[in-house]
Amino acid sequence: MLPFPAKVIEKAVSRQLTRFLEENCTLDPSQSGFCSNHSTKTALITADIRNILDNGEIAALILLDLSAAFDTVCHHTLRSRLSSAGIRDRALDWLTSFLPGRTQRVRLPPFCYATTKIICGVPQGSSLSPTLFIVHMAQLTNIA
């Protein structure tokens, strides 16, 4: 759990990061999940699919639903992709500094198990996590 002031700062940074990524055309326009004014349903009705069908061609739609998606983010890969997106210097250091060194512990009363180090993933409940996840997964749209 983050203290309230940290959450406020995180929310402000999240807005700035999203605006930067949108203004620099870093986010794929077909990305719908975790984007404001979009839903996963909008991904079903894209101009690309309509154009393909209008041309009499066959269209295929691949949807990906990841279980525990935020837990799959590799910190090293995320740092590299943020850098590729134009995030540099102090901003890059700040964005990636709160990822390592986190721990978790399972409590099942009356037991409390040992604390374990979290080696990958972005924090659940953080306002930055959806944007960081989008940046991490952005290269998936370049597979075709």
List the helices and strands and how they pair.
Blueprint: H1 4-23, H2 47-54, H3 75-84, H4 89-97, E1 103-104, E2 107-108, E3 111-112, E4 116-117, H5 129-137
Antiparallel strand pairs: 1-4, 2-3
Summary?
The protein is built from 5 helices and 4 strands. It is mostly helical and 144 residues long. It comes from Pleurodeles waltl (Iberian ribbed newt).
SS-derived structural category: mainly alpha
Sketch the major β-sheet.
2 strands, antiparallel
N to C succession of SSEs: HHHHEEEEH
Strand order of the largest sheet: 1-4
Strand content: 5-15%
Q: How many strand units?
A: 4
Shape: globular
The number of distinct helices, counting runs of at least 4 residues, comes to 5
Q: What's the average pLDDT?
A: 82
Helix content: 25-40%
Tell me the distance between the termini.
40 Å
Can you tell me the residue ranges where pLDDT is under 50 for at least 5 consecutive residues?
A: none
Radius of gyration: 18 Å
